[in-house]
Structure formats: structure tokens, C-alpha cells
## 1
Amino acid sequence: MTEPAYPVDEVRDDLIPLADYLDPEFAALEARNLWPKVWQQACRLEEIEEIGQFVVYEILTESIIVVRTGEGEADVAAMHNVCPHRGTLLVEGTGHVREFLCPFHGWRFGLDGANIEVVDPADWGKCLKPGETDLKHIQVGMWGGWVWINLDPDCQPLMEFLEPMASRCALHEFDKLRLAWYKTTTVEANWKTTMEAFMEFYHVQTTHRQMLTYTRDYSTSRGMGRHGWMSYEFATGLPLGRSERLDPQEVGDFREYLYEYGKQFKHDLASMQTERGYQAIQKLRELPADTPPEDVLAKWGENIYTAAIESGAGWPEGITPEYMAESGFDWAVFPNTVFLHPAVESVLWYRFRPHPDDFEKTIMDTYSLERFAPGEQPAWEHQVFARPEDGDYPLIYQQDFVNIPRVQKGMRSSGFAAARTNPMQERAIANFHRRLREFLIDPHAGDNLMAEDRLPPPGERNGDLDPTIDRVVEFSRKPGPQ
Ligand code: FES
Ligand SMILES: [Fe+2]
């Protein structure tokens, strides 16, 4: 076998070759070997609640109709959005139809893709074989309230592909979440550069410095098979507390401290906290001012839970601190999905896709999902902005959007040889690049890769890494100026 163009062992925990971000050949390889063969999150099930409701999912040059075909939970089809007559795209965006009508010459198709009408069929004589005039189905699956698609007929079953993430998030009931808001924008960076800004918490201490008053930000990160897991070493939920990076300070009235924390999340992130959760913090004022912090926290949890139950929204059963610790704070689902789920009833979910015309641009979707009481889901609309600054993204996203294009541009500098990822806090990023390169060589090589990427014991941490970066230049394969 010939040497792969991008060998897996070029990626180390502390080093990522720049080809992955800058080389058009690498992007072309992804277009050939990744996107046509990997499971992808196509849409939220609630976007296709009614029979005949559809969403067009686009990935590079592929356009796929995801449509509800019946009332059963699994009655969802995914088909190429192309007319078998002359290749016209049948539908765009989202919509609700009884059947699909090609706008060019009027061929018609049922919701299941079966051809209903070829206009003037006798003209073809016996040329058109049965099935040739139907829409072509692709693999489809459902998990977590999402529809997932795969263009590869021989792909691994979805539930296997999602492990070990799916098991570690099994109690969260993501399928009961609904959209609070949904925004899409285009970011001036490769899809991986953009995604990786949301795959680590190492940047919080500088980029989101305002959070340190309420966030013990030192994070931990692992590869979990193909996927990535991020959390905080001591946390079974939110890493709430004053960061050790700041001067120590007496907190005083812990109720007020929590109130300010909740306010910051509400204004700066507008996600990972329901309105009920925010109200639950206000209710803590009913406690005496000198209530010890542990008791305030316990009461807060109790208030959130009680409010969820009383409202009718409900709360998942069986969640324990041990489960939360295993489940972590944040997952990166291979290849292009990231979600943050420590608040259980409000989850921030991202999807990153390469722009079809420019591999140094990302189409980035942000979904804020919540567990609403019946009838309380607000009307939502899918907002699409040409540039991040055109959307009213809250402060934390704005801070990230400033960095991302600067990283993409900076990596092109002749003074930069490779990305030097933090082997502890950015470990999931290195794992992702190894798994990506592996997938590009053989999409099934990681199918049985379930094992957790175990961290070396503290005394030996990263002692095995080559302290020199002599091979960095060799690894970098930076393409010349374009
Ligand atoms: S291209 Fe669709 S009917 Fe002609
Ligand atoms: Fe960030």
C-alpha cells in the first residue's frame, strides 16, 4: 500500500500539521472521503413535524431532501434532491408539500420519492426502467431529536457510530428538547478552525475573561473513540466558582453571587439556562443571607428541578452526579457537531460545515435547545446572517468570532509551523485530527474504536512528547501563497 498523503502519526497531542487547515488538497480529500461517507446531523425532528414537511440539507455539492412521510416516529425519508429527468434541484430550503413537482418539465414524485408522473412517457418507449425515475434514497437515522443522514450505503449503523457518546448521554433525553433559537452564519475560516474554537475551554481565561468570576475554568479533555469529550476535573455539572486564576476574594452573600452568575449567562450566552432556571435563582433570595454556599447550591438544584416538574416540562429520571461526571460538559461528535449539555434542560448545539465555494469558510449553525413546558415553546425562526456581525449574537459568541478568522489568517504566516495544541485541555482536538486522517484513509478503521483515550498519570504527563519541534516543519506541509 502506498504511503497515505496525510499519515495519522503526524498528529501528536501537542502538534497538528497545518495542512489540515490550509491545504486545498486536504479539503479535496475531505470532499471525496469524509462527507460522502460519514453520518451528519441533517435537521431537527421538530422542523419536520407534519407529513410532507421537508428540510433541504446541503453539504458541499450534495443537496438532500429530509421529509416526513408518515405519522410514525421513524417515518422520515432522506433522498437526493435531484430530478432524474435532467437534474433540476426539486426544492429549496424548507417547505411543506403533498408531493414533489419538478419545476422544469413537471415530473412528479410522492413523499417516498416514488415517481407519480413522467410527462409524455410513451416518448421513451421502453427506455425508462422501473425505479430509474424515482428519487434516490440515502441512509437516514434518528437520535437525540435529530435526523442524521449518510450518503454511504455501507456505513456503520448510526447508533454504533455515535458511541461512546450516546451511552454517556443516554439519560439526557435530548429528544425532548425544542428550539429556543436557531442562527446560521458564515465564518471566514476553515470549518475545523471554526469548530475547534468551540472544542476547548482553554481560551476562556483570555477570550471570555469576564466569566472567570463565576467559572473555575481549568478544563480537561479526552478523545473518546472518534468523538471528543470536554469537562472540568472536579465538576459534576457547572464548574461554578471563582477561577483560581483570579486573586482570591470573599464571595459574601452566595445568593447574590449566583444571581449575578445567572444574569451573566442570560445576557452573554442566552443559552444553557432556561427562564425557569433563571427564576429558580431569584427564588434563592427567600433563603437567609448567611445560608452556607453548599446549601444555597443544593436549594438551587432543587428549585430548578421542582420548577421543571411543576411546569409540566419534566426532568429526566435517574440522573446522578456520577452520571453527570461521566457525561461531561461538552461533546464533539465526529466530524462536525459540538454540544454543551451540563444544564440538562437547556443545551447549546453547534454544527460546522465547509462552504461549498471556499474551504476557508465555514457555514456555522447554532441551536439553543430547551425543555419547554407544553405550549411554552416560543415561535422560533431560522435566522441566517451573511456575517457573524450581522446577527445579534450575544457577547460570548462575538468574542469567539473575533478570534476565528485571525487564527485562519495567522496560520498562513511563514513564521508559524504547526498548531501546538495543549495536550491536556485541547486533547480532544488532537484526537479529532487523528481520527479524521484515519477516516480519510479508511472510513471504517475507527468503527470499533470505543476506548477512552486515557490520560497519563500526573507525574508522567506528556513526558513522552518530543520536546523539540524539529519535525514540525517537516509536518507542516504548508501550501505556498495562493
Ligand atoms: S428536469 Fe425535472 S422534469 Fe425535467
Ligand atoms: Fe469561546
Note: The first strand starts at residue 16 and ends at 17.
## 2
Amino acid sequence: MVMDQEQFEAAKQEFDQIDTDHDGYITLEEAVEWGATQGPDVGRAISRHMNQDRSGDGQVSFEEFLRYKMRDYDW
Ligand SMILES: [Ca+2]
């Protein structure tokens, strides 16, 4: 699936907002913290995504985040 430049930039911006220490990975802590500002539904959605983390390292890389976005998951 192809993502256009605008969608990519939007996803990058969103990722940077969630990745508060900017190490390039979203941890569960960062996801929960971000979710807390977005409402309980978002927090639950993020927890679900963390459970589906493909690499199983408990963190979401930008690449994994993009995959979620491309599949149009409801964050
Ligand atoms: Ca981080």
C-alpha cells in the first residue's frame, strides 16, 4: 500500500508527538501518556496495538507505526 508524502508527514508528526523522548521508538509508557491526553478510547486502542507489536520488543518503531497507519487502524 502506498502512502503519499502528505500522509507520511502527518504520520511522522504524530509519531514525534507520541515519542516524547525522541529515541525513535514508542514505549508503552509513552503511548499511555499520550493516550491520556487523547481520551480513554485512544489509550485502549494504543494498548491493543502494543500487544500486537510485531517485533515483540515492547516498543513501536516508526516503521511499525506506519504499518498501523497504512492499515488505517483507528488510533
Ligand atoms: Ca521513545
Note: Residues 5-70 form a domain with the Recoverin; domain 1 fold (CATH 1.10.238.10).
## 3
Amino acid sequence: MKKYDVIIVGAGPGGVFAAHEFAKKSKGLKIACFEQGKELVKRHCPIDGEKIKNCIHCKTCSIMSGFGGAGAFSDGKYNITNEFGGNLYEYIGRLQAISLMKYVDDINMEYGGSGTKLFSTANSDIKKKCFEHDLKLLEAQVRHLGTDKNYVVLENLYKEIKDKVEFHFDTQVTKVIKTETGYEVETTEGNFDCDKLIISVGRSGSKWMETVCEDLGIKTNSNRVDIGVRVELPYEVFSHLTDELYESKIVYRTKQYNDLVRTFCMNPHGVVVNENTNGIVTVNGHSYEDPSLHTENTNFALLVTKHFTEPFKESNEYGESIARLSNMLGGGVIVQRFGDMIKGRRTNESRLKESFVRPTLSATPGDLSLVIPKRIMDDIIEMVYALDKIAPGTANHDTLLYGVEVKFYNMNVELDENLETECKGLYVIGDGSGVTHSLSHASASGVFVARKILENL
Ligand SMILES: Cc1cc2nc3c(=O)[nH]c(=O)nc-3n(C[C@H](O)[C@H](O)[C@H](O)COP(=O)(O)OP(=O)(O)OC[C@H]3O[C@@H](n4cnc5c(N)ncnc54)[C@H](O)[C@@H]3O)c2cc1C
């Protein structure tokens, strides 16, 4: 059986940045990375909007899997902050978390991202305006690579590390077995041995991660899911925020239920896209740095966080069931005009055609109130009106709402301050650990663990 010093499972940002750190500093260690998806240039989603309009459920989803992970075709927004994107700081400290996110940013600049803008909420008047209307703007620096530059950075990173780290694409890891000296990793291409194992399987690997924890007796817990819609409106409505901040994370506490609603993943001049998680189609969005690819719209998500208490533990199942309902009624994602929602009627093809906002995703016009629970729908409507005060036009009749957007949170794997499980030598990083939910946090966790392993070897 082939043996490595370190095996990394998953080539998303967590795995790639761990691999890069080893490639840079490991001096002769044998490192392998197993990835169920394809290498970057071979990643293609078959949906072309003409012959194939809807998800055909490929064996591995090229949007979510492969070199670069779920982040490969993302908007490439690297948020340098401890306020959102994960709670890495709780394990490794606030200063170190920020310092690693800045280190990741330096690498992104070195590999093709230079020239992109770093936005900041510091000293922004928008913060004051938000406070005046019961809204809170979260603090962050945001590097916007854009989908195109993000891709170039990944291409360059791969070129740099591919001769120093052995990549095995189209190879799924199916089981992890603890041995006397380390771990045996069972894959679709045979079994491999290693001293140290880093698992970085993101959201798409969440179900598999659960089985690993069950097999090895690693404790986990999970009780959170975020449910909401993606809003699409003319670029001008949010331009005073997006021109200055690019991404503004704004939180609001609803008067009716005291629930928190937040904006998430804002994409000026962007496009709304399908996202496939474990065969369920939800909605997401991104935008390009290249002005020739800009659209006339801005999109962002409005999400309501649901924390469940005893006895219910299946928060992701709850989110999936709601997404499944929209898939059942709409064959995928449903789109509705805000005005139709307020009037309690569905949006149909002819109403959508009349809309001043041209949709960037071909979704099924329908009625989101048949899908989204009333409490969440009420929260979203209240938030739309609250945002209308700082960005007039948000509550316009033709504002489009796509549903559903669900942010699944992986269960939290019990980890120590080194992101190591109770099984020594087994580290879990990135979104698959439950510790991170973003590009910058996932990447930083990869660098952190690679350094820890290098210190100890
Ligand atoms: C459309 C979209 C847009 C996004 N935009 C942003 C953004 O602008 N900013 C931001 O901060 N975040 C964004 N995100 C979230 C971001 O992509 C993730 O937080 C980040 O990719 C997590 O990195 P990761 O390495 O933990 O996991 P992932 O990127 O999910 O990578 C995990 C990898 O592991 C592989 N894998 C899973 N199971 C196995 C297995 N058993 N064997 C082998 N391989 C396996 C998967 O194929 C995958 O390639 C976006 C996500 C999507 C889907």
C-alpha cells in the first residue's frame, strides 16, 4: 500500500491552501491530495440554458467539486474579518485568524489577483445610516477577486504545487480507518496509508464527514440552518453601498418575531445561479470582475438563521425539505416579484415578462409563500422594507425574489485548539469542520493546520 506523510482529502480552498503551505515549506515530505471532482480545466456544468436547462444530477457536481472546491466559480470575495464567515478565531485566537486571512490574501495577490480592489467598512457613513434605521453593518475588509480572477489564481496555484503535491482527481475517499501509526484511507482507486490526515470536504462532503465521525467515535453537534431568498434588483438601487463597500453585511432584528435577518453574498452587476447540494437545487449568486461580463442587476441573499433546540437535531434536513418543496413545485428554483408576493398571488410568465427587472437566472415563476414557512417569509418581507429605508427601491414591485436559498451548516466536529480531533493526527478544516463558512476562513484553516503539522514532524 502506498504511504504518504500527509494525505489531504478535498481540494477546496481549505485543502488547496494546506497543500500550498506544504509545497512551500515541507522539504521532501510526501503529500497527496484526493479529490472526488475533476481538475480545474475539466470542470464543466452541463447546463447551457438551451439544450440542458435544469440540473441533470451528474455523479459529481462540477460546480461544487474539483480543484478549487465550491469556491472555484464563486464570486471570489475574500472577507477578512472575524465578524462573519466562520468562527475560526474561537480556536486559534482573533489576531492569528486575521493574520492568516491576510497571508491568504497576499498569496492570492501573488498568484494573479493583484490589481483587484480591497474594500473596507472602516469609517463608512453607511454604518451611521444603518444605525438610524435599526440595521447593523458588520465590519470587514473585502477583497473581491471576481469569478474570472479567482479562476486565474486557482490555475496559477495549481501550476505551482502540482509537482510537489500528488493530486488524485476523480478519486473519492470512501472510508477512514485508524491504524497503529496513522490512518488508512480507502478510496475508489485503492487504499493508501498516511501518518497525518487532513479532511477538508466542505459542504458537499458533509454527509460523508458524518459517517467518518461515527466510525471513529468523534463527537459532533449540529443545530443551525439559514433559510431565505436571493434578491435581484437594478444595480442603481444599492450602488451607493456596493461602490463603496462592495459587500455589505447588514443585520436586522425583526419587530414581529425578534428574529435576525441578514444580507449575504452581495453581487453588484452579478448573476443569479443554481447551486446543487446533495442533489437539491437551491439558489446562489456571483459576479465578474471583468466589466464586459457585468449585468444591469445586483443580487444578494436575505437569510434567516434557525437554531433548533431539543429534541430536534436535523437542522440540515429541515432546510433540505424546504428546498425540496421548491424543487417539487418549480422543478428547481422559483422566482417571484416582491409586489406579487405582497398581493398574495403567484408570478407567472406574463407577469415576469412585464417586470422592469430582467432576471439573470431562468427560474420558474411561482409562489414562494407555498414553499417558505410563514415566519421566515414575514421576516424577509420586514427586512425588505427595512432595507428600503437605506436603499430606496428595494421594496419595489418588480424586485425579484428567488427561492430558496439555503445555507447548510455542517455539523460542528469536536476539535481542539489545533483543529485536531480526539483521534491524534486527524485534522478537520474548512466548511466540513463546521468551523468555517467562507473562502478566507477555510483557506486560513488550511494554512494553520499545515503549519501545525510541519512544526511537529
Ligand atoms: C456559488 C457559490 C458562491 C460562493 N461565493 C463565496 C464568496 O464569494 N465568498 C466566500 O467567502 N464564500 C463563498 N462561497 C462559499 C465558499 O465557496 C466555501 O466557504 C469554501 O469553498 C469552503 O472551502 P472548503 O475547502 O472548506 O470546502 P469546498 O470548497 O466545498 O471543497 C471541498 C472539496 O472536497 C471534495 N470532497 C468532498 N467529499 C470528498 C470525498 N469523500 N473524497 C474526496 N473529495 C471530497 C469536494 O469535491 C470539494 O472539491 C460560495 C459558494 C458557492 C457554492
Note: The longest strand covers residues 224-234.
